[in-house]
Amino acid sequence: MEPPSAEMRRMLAGEPYRPGDPGIQAAQARARAWMARYNAALDSPPEHRRRLLREQLGTVGDGAVVRPPFHCDFGSHIHLGRDVFLNFGCVILDVCPVTIGDGTQIGPAVQIYAADHPRDPGTRRAGLEFGRPVAIGRNVWIGGGAILLPGVSVGDDAIVGAGSVVTRDVPAGATVAGNPARPLRAQAHQEQAP
């Protein structure tokens, strides 16, 4: 694999970059070809899918599971810890690093966006984009259909309710829900061990 282009280095650093750069386009083409193979492997054994994940993703911890279909911009900027679980239909726009800690469980159709766009209309007209990294801690539970916006972090042991839009950092151990996601009052957990 060839070294990243100057535009790719700017992209990964969270600086404005031109998405039409040939180096960026080539990396995305490789990711699309990989996604076609990965998403066609739905009925393959988990070990085969894990090998495919390790071909494209930056880091794949032991026991990590990503149920197809799965979509990303590059894949190589995604880092999954041990025993991470992503259910069907997740999307990760990884123009900057996206890290997901050990034991985190992510529901179906969750979208994680590291990709962002300038607020200034002139900068957008110039065709520039940028991104901000997303970090999800250990043992986090993210409910189906949630959306995490660029630059957010979710602390260890946090819960994000289904359908929530996370616009701000979520502290460790917090439970958030809604659009925009807001902390819920602390409740005693009444769960019993089986």
UniProtKB/TrEMBL annotation:
Keywords: Acyltransferase, Repeat, Transferase. Gene3D superfamilies: Hexapeptide repeat proteins (2.160.10.10). InterPro entries: Hexapep, Hexapep_transf_CS, Hexapeptide_acetyltransf, Mac_dom, Trimer_LpxA-like_sf. It comes from the Bacteria. GO terms for molecular function: acyltransferase activity. The keyword Repeat applies. Pfam families: Hexapep (PF00132), Mac (PF12464). Residues 8-62 form the Maltose/galactoside acetyltransferase domain. CDD domains: LbH_MAT_GAT. The keyword tRNA processing does not apply. Its EC number is 2.3.1.-. It is an enzyme of class 2 (transferase). Belongs to the transferase hexapeptide repeat family. This is Sugar O-acetyltransferase.
